[in-house]
């Protein structure tokens, strides 16, 4: 057995992977210093000073230059400081995509406070859990969340100040523009990269979400590594329709503000509108989740859309099937699939220059170290399936107020246990995700990783996407059940698909039942809701 690399040494193959991304030799120490340097407020100020009049961000019908964003953020920061908020106090930011969301976000950081992003659709109990868990004293919100948080603030919680950032305030809450007009602009403070910038809550499928503290260094190193690998510069224009309350959507804003480039963001996804924006804005980069790519690929107007300006369509947040990746690549240009999480930031990516391998997420981004380990934390050889563990400046250091969860999820040397299962190809070093530890199916006493089965099914010509789950079985303990989405109007022949599975998988891994569905149930970031699929399969067996 091989022990994981200690904190003093760089994992085998890491520097070679970084050099493959960057196309040059790498000084590991100098690279890591570059990745973590500074803070987000200072980076935003530096860009604003360099290109104040350059368009920075357009969200639906609202737009601002880099200089305007910096000035408005300074106003919000000044107001928060005037309310007595101290450094690293938690401030909840809850709402849909808007220009004001970004202004409020940057203003909270300018005040030296910690942003706690929350999705617009969170319920009252979910918001209350976050408030109580992080001890937030202030919230900036819009829509129904504004009323929910105002109610929480009047109910004996730590929350005492609520500001409306979308339109007029309600229930006595001041609107954001009034806050800005009444405040003294605040210059970036003397925070360090090790200071907290964000407390993000994971969208866990069981129990309450856990808080993930992220420093300025974590956030900056995550996006800087990807920017270098993807050749991002001031001439780029990003288009996406992903929520700012998630790292995928907000990460694009970070890249835009660091590079002095431009982003065009929609509050809701519509294929016609998104494609029109790519053409009219001359977009060079597209961020999307597989569910969006699936809808784009089946949109009736996709063949006539003009993607000639697009150099980089990026997919993330959940697995992209090889069939869909090929279809999207034939329309938009070669799609680049990458891998990351709230805890580990952007950590693995297919290369910008070189082969983008469908069904794989590539190799570690600059600064990231990766290993595959067994159940006891020993490093495995390339080609073996095991848990993916990561280390690097973008990886968080532990869960908020949960020391036991932190201890369970880290190995000595700072290695974060992702809970994902994968294997590294011994020939080319590319990582393939084969499942989740918690989703592993045990059938007849044998371990089955769902993603391995899904990849085989998705390689069938009639299958657009697949999701595989384990359903309780008296005979097997769990039986393998597959849900498949057909390509366009194609008909999926279950006997043919079953034969395809038997040709490519050991018998015990082959699905016992198939369900052909129009679409898979997903959350707002495109992750398949597998608990719902298990319920559907169990109900069908009971009623069938």
UniProtKB/TrEMBL annotation:
<dbReference type="GO" id="GO:0004467">
    <property type="term" value="F:long-chain fatty acid-CoA ligase activity"/>
</dbReference>
<dbReference type="Pfam" id="PF00501">
    <property type="entry name" value="AMP-binding"/>
</dbReference>
<dbReference type="InterPro" id="IPR025110">
    <property type="entry name" value="AMP-bd_C"/>
</dbReference>
<dbReference type="InterPro" id="IPR000873">
    <property type="entry name" value="AMP-dep_synth/lig_dom"/>
</dbReference>
<keyword id="KW-0436">Ligase</keyword>
<comment type="similarity">
    <text>Belongs to the ATP-dependent AMP-binding enzyme family.</text>
</comment>
<feature type="domain" description="AMP-dependent synthetase/ligase">
    <location>
        <begin position="45"/>
        <end position="400"/>
    </location>
</feature>
<dbReference type="InterPro" id="IPR045851">
    <property type="entry name" value="AMP-bd_C_sf"/>
</dbReference>
<dbReference type="GO" id="GO:0031956">
    <property type="term" value="F:medium-chain fatty acid-CoA ligase activity"/>
</dbReference>
<dbReference type="Pfam" id="PF13193">
    <property type="entry name" value="AMP-binding_C"/>
</dbReference>
<feature type="domain" description="AMP-binding enzyme C-terminal">
    <location>
        <begin position="452"/>
        <end position="527"/>
    </location>
</feature>
<dbReference type="InterPro" id="IPR042099">
    <property type="entry name" value="ANL_N_sf"/>
</dbReference>
<protein>
    <submittedName>
        <fullName>Long-chain-fatty-acid--CoA ligase</fullName>
        <ecNumber>6.2.1.3</ecNumber>
    </submittedName>
</protein>
<dbReference type="InterPro" id="IPR020845">
    <property type="entry name" value="AMP-binding_CS"/>
</dbReference>
